[in-house]
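step 3/5: co-fold with nicotinamide-adenine-dinucleotide
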Amino acid sequence: MMSPGDSSFKPNIFPHTSLERIKEIIYRGGVVALTGAGVSKESNIPTFREKGGIWDKYDISIYGNIVGLSSLLFFKPKKIKDFITDVYSSIISANPNPAHLTLARLEDDGILTCVITQNIDNLHQEAGSKKVYELHGNLFSERCTRCGRRYKNTKKELIGMINRLQSASRHEILSTVLPRCECGGRTRPDVVMFGEQLPQTEYEKAYIEAKKCRTLLLIGTSGVVYPAASLPYVAKQAGANIIEVTTETTELTPIADYSIIGRAGEILPKLL
Ligand code: NAD
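step 4/5: write tokens
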């Protein structure tokens, strides 16, 4: 069987072209990467929509927003325990894969300007990427709902939280999941839920980067979550090349100059 390690490895690219041609475009520089759940799939973090993913197991209309989660916290705390354990477990045990590492390397080499990510898993930073715009927040950060202060958590601290959660009584669940800030307010995970605003400054910076890039590399995003999915249109309109790396065609395929079909962890190292 042919594998990416073989010199004969030829990913399926359409419209048909060679990997050399794609490299040529990328090595002109001014590249911005927009990543989604697919870039972390090979780090064993399931995408949310696929079979076995979070939205396959949990009802998105309840678990995907703060109102639904708050009511579960008070009325069905066991369900919250299961949900939080599921979401956190895969993320805190994940490590960067070759796709994350390639993007960090391209930044070091001055080819890639920044990564704009919809992911909340911190894997780009762990891989060494320095300029990362997180449109949907970061699971390793908590924000006070009263004073706005942010607290950073390490993997070890989050593992401790998950362990405490398993034996937490009904009334301990709240303080384990949403601990108090020094000001007395409740903190919450610093991630964007459905119906919530994106971090404004982060989005504005990402918008500017998308508008001025020469090439936008779309990696592992279905292009259905807005406003993140509008950035490729911004880049395209400003004249950028759009190259996507995905395991299946997406909503953004029609505007891509080239779609490379395959796993990001296999394809991206081939671009170096
Ligand atoms: P999505 O789940 O809607 O789509 C994932 C895309 O990645 C699909 O098009 C799929 O074909 C592709 N894909 C799957 N495996 C791949 C691989 N190995 N290589 C390349 N492509 C692959 O993802 P989305 O567009 O990012 O939207 C989902 C939302 O859920 C995001 O807003 C994100 O915040 C959140 N999310 C984050 C994580 C994470 O932090 N790792 C995981 C799941 C979901």
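step 5/5: annotate
Residues 161 and 177 are 8 Å apart (CA to CA).
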